[in-house]
Structure to design on (261 residues):
């Protein structure tokens, strides 16, 4: 009777394992959903107090100026900088949860890409005087795109290039156009990204592990949002990198598109 018993055990074991797997999976999905809901709720809840804080600091600035309290200006500026930082994080959290829910909306407008990229480089240069941001080449193209969202892509890439390049001051943006596409390369000479982690950096909340990277603040949302926006504009983003030498992020966008996906 032993062989039959053995067969029976094998027969009964399989369905049990399968049921276990299905339960595990649905529990994990529920947990993921709760996490997504929490991120969405938290970012919405944080938005209104931040708006109030912003309004009150600007009111305070005007009142202090009228009363001649110039000595308080540095403290106020520092408050405004911190409020802006938290606002950006909350906006990114909101973007992440909208992407997850498939609700990130895009405007459609004609965008002068060359002008947009130069404007971003100028703004980044003004806010980061420690680095030189060079723009080389040109892309004479009017794209059907969401200007703000596309701007977010390159602001983010340049901001990362600066952030992950302690001690390497030059960031280059190379622009190139072909009859069908435009290519924008953002190049830095900083930390670089280990080969085995290069694909993962576009995942939600992923940060490269390593003592140097850990010392630099961030939540791993930027590139996830960047990749989504590029995809919605029909483009691609890739990365080349050498540890200790630097990274190149390449965005390619189609010139002609009647609508966004
Ligand atoms: P964050 O910078 O907030 O961590 P991102 O999504 O923008 O999030 O980037 C994900 C990770 O990819 C970063 O944590 C960093 O380790 C790595 N990374 C991004 N850009 C660069 C870069 N230019 N050089 C080196 N590492 C980078």
């Amino acid at each position: 009777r032993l062989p039959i018993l053995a067969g029976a055990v094998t027969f009964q074991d399989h369905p049990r394992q399968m049921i276990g797997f299905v339960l595990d999976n649905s529990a994990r999905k529920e947990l993921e959903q709760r996490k997504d809901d929490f991120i969405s709720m938290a970012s919405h809840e944080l938005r209104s107090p931040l708006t109030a804080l912003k309004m009150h600091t600007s009111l305070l600035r005007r009142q202090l100026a009228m009363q001649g309290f110039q000595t308080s200006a540095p403290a106020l500026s520092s408050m405004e900088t911190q409020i802006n930082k938290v606002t950006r994080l909350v906006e990114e959290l909101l973007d992440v949860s909208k992407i997850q829910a498939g609700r990130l909306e895009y405007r459609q407008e004609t965008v002068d890409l060359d002008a947009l990229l130069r404007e971003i480089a100028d703004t980044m240069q003004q806010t980061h005087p420690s680095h030189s941001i060079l723009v080389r080449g040109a892309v004479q193209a009017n794209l059907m795109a969401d200007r703000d969202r596309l701007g977010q892509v390159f602001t983010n890439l340049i901001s990362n290039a600066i952030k992950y390049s302690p001690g390497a001051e030059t960031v280059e943006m190379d622009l190139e156009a072909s009859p069908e596409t435009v290519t924008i390369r953002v190049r830095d000479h900083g930390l670089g990204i280990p080969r085995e982690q290069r694909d993962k950096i576009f995942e939600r909340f992923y940060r490269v592990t390593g003592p140097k990277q850990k010392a630099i603040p961030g939540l791993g949302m930027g590139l996830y949002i960047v990749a989504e926006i590029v995809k919605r504009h029909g483009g691609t983003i890739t990365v080349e990198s050498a540890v200790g030498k630097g990274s190149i992020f390449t965005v390619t966008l189609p010139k002609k598109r009647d609508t966004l996906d």
About this structure: The two ends are 64 Å apart (CA to CA). The pocket of adenosine-5'-diphosphate is lined by residues 160-161, 164, 188, 190-191, 193, 201, 206-208, 213, 218-224, 247 (CB under 6 Å).
